[in-house]
Give the backbone structure.
Amino acid sequence: QVRLVESGGGSVEAGGSLRLSCEAFGYPYVSYCIGWFRHAPDEPERVASIDTDDEIVYADSVKGRFSISRDKAKHTLYLQMDNLTPEDSGMFYCGSHRGNCPLRLKTMDSWGKGILVTVSS
């Protein structure tokens, strides 16, 4: 069974940086979609994701500030977040899906428990 474990959250002042990590345990799939989301699993909104063809998609609000990457050998996903603002505060969830990223994000196969990011002004 797939298990996603997030780490790296915390508190930072506006303008600061954080790096989130998501380690995938028991991942049986060769190709899959994986990414970072808000408001998961009920009403997930994409922050950034990597699809099976390595296409990267960012939410408009984070373009130029956040960078997603992954280490396939370690089954680990990263999100480098720079120039954070208070509006970035909240829970960040790692999500994955066998095959291409689904159009309906609610149908993603697996979700982590989430990790809290707090940005103070």
Remarks:
- The two ends are 40 Å apart (CA to CA).
- Residues 30 and 72 are 10 Å apart (CA to CA).
- The first strand starts at residue 3 and ends at 7.
- The chain has a mean pLDDT of 95.
